[in-house]
Amino acid sequence: MTIGTVTTGAPGTPAEVTNSGTAQNAVLNFTIPQGLPGATQPVSLVSSYSTPPQPGASGIPITFDRNALSLGTDISHTSGSDTFTINQPGVYSVEFHGVITPTANNTFPVNINTSLEVNGSVQPGASVPFTFQNATQSSEVSFTVPISVTDVPTTLQVAPFGGNYLADAVSMTVTRLGNS
Q: Which of 15, 21, 97, 110 is 20 to 30 A from 73, alpha carbon to alpha carbon?
């Protein structure tokens, strides 16, 4: 006995095996139906940004003054707010990008650590430190991190710690990836 061909049949059709050889020297050809398409989850995300540069003090979250795109109800953000709220348990991806510059009233060198806070606590893997030598330096800060949310509502904020800062060209996108 030998295996001949294996092909994919149409969804919902029965599996089939045919012999293209002889009774003594069988060559079996298999047709296996394709599975039905699975259900797709609706897209749920909020993407926000801020147009004017904004000053802040250590530990004060960055404000996102505009929403670029908001789909679904799992995540919410009000334009002009520093807080994103997750309203549905699940796994989420959080992406942040911005430019941080220390203000001149810092004592240099100053280490400013920009972090994602989940319910007020720094999220492991979502902190970017930079040591500034003077007020003319800038640092492009970005991170992408998955988070698992079991209790809702859950709040998300991005806050620089360690010195006074100017945040510019900031954007944040929170996307629901699926269930935990």
A: 97
83 and 166 co-located in one domain: yes
Residue 38 domain-assigned (yes or no):
no
Q: Do 61 and 102 fall within a single domain?
A: yes
- Which residues partner with 48 through β-bridges? 67, 172
Checking DSSP bridges between strand 84-86 and strand 121-132, what pairing results, if any?
unpaired
Of residues 104, 122, 102, the one with CA closest to residue 112:
102
Average pLDDT in the 115-143 region?
A: 98
Can you give the pTM of this predicted structure?
A: 0.79
**13 and 55 inside one domain:** no
127 and 90 assigned to the same domain: yes
**Residue 1 has what pLDDT?**
85
Q: Cβ(170)–Cβ(97) under 8 Å? A: yes
pLDDT, tens digit, for every residue of 68-85? 999 999 999 999 999 999
